[in-house]
Every structure is written in C-alpha cells, then in structure tokens.
Design a protein that fits this description.
The chain has 23 helices and 6 strands. It is mainly alpha-helical. The chain folds into 3 domains: 132 residues, MgtE N-terminal fold, CATH 1.25.60.10; 102 residues, CBS-domain, CATH 3.10.580.10; 171 residues, Orthogonal Bundle (Tetracycline Repressor, domain 2). A hairpin with a 5-residue loop joins strand 2 and strand 3. The longest helix has 31 residues. It is globular.
C-alpha cells in the first residue's frame, strides 16, 4: 500500500513538472502535445485531431508536421489537409515540402496555392524539383496566378524577382490623402494582406516616391500625396541577388522596398518578413557549408545523406594523408621520444580550434559586408596577433604541464614553442583564407575549413616534430 501511494505521488509530481515545462514555452509545441496528436492519429480518433488542429496557428501546424514520423505525417496530410490553413505549407522547410507535396494530388496543391499571396505561392512551386509536377500544378491555377508564377520562375534563382510579392499598393501622384484612404477602404479585398508603404507612380508606372502608412493616416484629407512622399526610395532590380537585398534592408532599416524591371517600372514589393527568411536561409547555408554539408538533410534517406557527405570526407581523407606523411617522416624521432606521440593531438587540436574561431569571424564578417579589401589586412593582422597571444598563454601552460608530466624540461619547451607557432599560423590562416577566396570570387564558406585544417595539422606537426628532432635527439 505504501509503495502504491509512493508510485502515485511520483506520477503526480512528474505530471506537474511536465505541465510547468509546457507553461514555460514561449512559442512552439510541447513534446507531450505532439505525442497526444500522434496517439490520436494512430487510434483513428478524428475528433481529437480536429480539435487540436483548430487551436494551432499555421506555424504550429508546420512544426507538428515536421516533428512526426513519415507514416504519421502521411496519415495527417491525407485525412486532414482540408482543415489546415494554406499558409502551413509556406511555413514548411523546402526539403520537407519536396517530400510531402508529391504525396498530394496536383489539383489539391493548386487549391492551396490559390489561397496564398504570390510570393508564398512561388516559394512553394520553386521548392519542387520535378518540372512535370510543377507544370501540372500550374495548369490547375487561375490565369492570373499562372501568369504570376510563370513570370516569377523566369527570374534567376535566389533573385529579388523570385522573392517579391506582386500584390502592392500604387497610387497616382496627383491624388489626395482623402481619395487614397477612400480607395484603400473600397478596395480592401484586392489589397495585400499586409503592407507598410504606398508607392507613388507616374503614368508610365515608374516610382516617383513612397509614403509610409503611418505618415498617410496622420495627414489631412485635403493634402496632396506629392507633398507627403519620401524622395529617398530604394528601388530593387528584379535580378538583384537575395543576399544583396537582405544587406540593403539591414543597412537602410527598411520595412518594404519596391522591385522594378529593366525599364524601372514597378512590378512588385519585398517586405521585411521575406527578408528575415532570407537572412535565416543564408546563415544556415553558410553554417552547413563550413562543415561540408551542402544543404540540410534531416529528411533525406540514409544512403542519399551518406553520399552527399562522403565527398567532403573523401577530400578530408586526402589532406589527412598529407599530415600523416609529415608525421611518418619523423618516425625515428618519435621512436626515440615516445612522449611525442601522446602530445601531438594537443598541438593539432589547439591549432584547429583556434583556426576555426578566426575562420568563423572572418566568414561572418564577409557575409555581412563588414570585411572587404579596405580592411582585410587589418583583420588578418589582428587575428594573427590574437593567435600569438593565445599561443604564448597556452604554450606556456601546456609546456609546464608536459615538462612536469614527463619530467623533461626540453620537451615542455618544444611543445610550448610548437603551440605558439601553430596558434599564430591558425589565426593568420583562419582570417586570410576566407579573404583570399572571396577576392577570387569563391564562396569562403565552402572550402575554407579544409584548407585551414590542412594548414594547422601539417604546420603544427612539422613544427612540433621538427623542434623535437633538433632539441631532443
């Protein structure tokens, strides 16, 4: 009886703890909620699933879809897709869309896309790699949406034309504030769901200015738009790369910006919510490239993931053999001083970590345009100095410890000097390699790490074993 009461008490405490954890969530779904939905799916409890879906936002539903397994995901989509907000599919990652959308009939995807704004619709279409499937979906769309998507797909990948929204508010420059407000009220159903600026255009549809909404609503009805418009506008060419668009928004603190064609006519608008997605996408892309993963592969098959990663590992294997060859050339020294074999990983590991720190700082600075030819040498010199200072600190520390450990002062001096050299090299190469690659128009995020690892391993081993050969044999 006592054991039973104790067990019940533990269960109640665990339930209270889980409830507290759920209450601590600022956003997102708790694991317990996801498990509840999965259990209802497996027991074919349609009522429970519907009740839970009704309470979720589009982002929450997308999170639910992404976190359940393939079988449960398929059940959820085939039985409850009609109950989902169309914007759920714009919240899903590209890789997940490419997996789950082909499971749905093309007419169903077309009906989902029809409810979205043009930028979200294009984002879904371009995430599908199967051209025939794309065309089949587009065939079921209205002529207006079909034309918008075909025009969007005609622009270069990752360009402003792919990113822009074709729904915007453009007003003739001779209108008054009162007439504009009346128009906005009358045409409410035709306006974008969210917009921040009104663009002023001439008869040729070229932009002459823009008016933030807050400036419009504060003005008198009789005031002319021409007196309110901002002259400092930032038109974006449709062919501009999306990373450059993000930089412009960050630099100028924009909420939205007009997109123009080759003849400077207004054809769309980019809003800050789309730019946030671009910044997130570019950051993730650079992070994955730094470790040799070209794209996110959470939902890819095991063999496909293994193949994509194996190419980078093969390159690393070649560089590892170069380092091994250097070590092998000092075989006689290692045989005489066996302690060297125990200490070599310290030299390589410290150099690799220090170099990665400098590399991350340099790649990030290049990505956000903080680093260019004007300040490249100053940045490299700083990282070189940082490497030297850290080399002195940790070289002294490791030298003392190694000397005491192996009762050999000379060995301590050798590894101390080797660490100073390797951390100096690591800081210099970590900053210089991305700068050099960027100068030659190569993406520094892709191949910097492999050059850096090769440099720190080879120079580190050569310095350590070379000094050991001179002073210990």
């Amino acid at each position: 009886m006592v054991d039973e009461e104790k067990r019940l008490s533990q269960l109640e405490a665990e339930a209270d703890r889980e409830e507290d954890e759920d209450n601590d969530l600022v956003f997102g779904l708790s694991d317990r909620f996801i498990q509840k939905v999965v259990l209802a799916l497996r027991e074919d409890d349609r009522q429970t699933v519907l009740e839970e879906l009704d309470e979720l936002s589009a982002a929450d539903t997308a999170e639910l879809i992404s976190k359940i397994n393939d079988e449960d995901r398929s059940t959820l989509l085939h039985n409850f897709v009609e109950k989902m907000d169309p914007y759920v599919f714009s919240e899903l990652s590209w890789e997940l869309r490419e997996i789950i959308l082909p499971e749905l009939p093309s007419w169903k995807i077309a009906s989902i896309i029809s409810e979205l704004e043009s930028d979200d619709a294009l984002d879904i279409i371009q995430s599908l790699s199967d051209e025939d499937f794309r065309h089949d979906i587009i065939r079921h769309l209205s002529a207006k949406m079909r034309l918008a998507l075909q025009e969007g797909l005609s622009f270069p990948e990752d360009s402003a034309g792919r990113l822009m929204q074709r729904e915007f508010v453009a007003i003739p420059q001779f209108w008054t504030v009162g007439k504009t407000i009346d128009y906005l009220r009358a045409a409410a159903d035709e306006l974008p769901e969210d917009f921040f600026d009104i663009f002023i255009i001439d008869p040729a549809y070229r932009i002459t200015g823009e008016i933030p909404l807050n400036r419009l609503v504060r003005a008198k009805r009789s005031e002319k738009l021409e007196t309110l418009k901002l002259e400092d506008i930032h038109p974006i060419p449709a062919t501009m790369d999306q990373e450059a668009v993000a930089q412009l928004f960050r630099r100028e603190n924009l909420m939205s910006a007009p997109v123009v064609d080759e003849e400077d006519r207004l054809i769309g608008v980019i809003t800050v919510d789309d730019v946030v997605d671009v910044i997130d996408e570019e950051a993730q892309e650079d992070m994955l490239k730094l470790v040799g993963v070209g794209e996110a592969d959470s939902y890819k098959a095991i063999l496909s993931t293994s193949f994509l990663r194996s190419r980078w590992l093969a390159v690393n294997l070649v560089t590892a053999f170069i380092a091994a060859a250097i070590v092998s050339s000092f075989g006689a020294t290692i045989e005489k001083v066996v302690a060297l074999a125990a200490l070599m990983p310290i030299v390589a590991g410290m150099g690799g970590n220090a170099g990665t720190q400098a590399l991350a700082v340099a790649v990030r600075a290049i990505a956000v345009r903080e680093l260019s030819g004007a300040n490249a040498m100053r940045t490299v010199a700083k990282e070189c100095a940082v490497g030297f200072v850290n080399g002195c600190i940790f070289g002294t520390l490791v030298g003392v410890l190694a000397g005491l450990w192996f009762q050999n002062v000379i060995l301590g001096l050798v590894i101390g000097m080797a660490l100073i050299i390797n951390l100096l090299v690591a800081g210099t190469f970590g900053a210089a390699i991305p700068v050099i690659l960027n100068h030659y128009k190569q993406d520094p995020a892709i191949s910097s790490s492999i050059f850096l690892t090769t440099a720190t391993d080879c120079i580190g081993f050569f310095a350590f074993l070379g000094l050991a050969t001179i002073f210990l044999t």
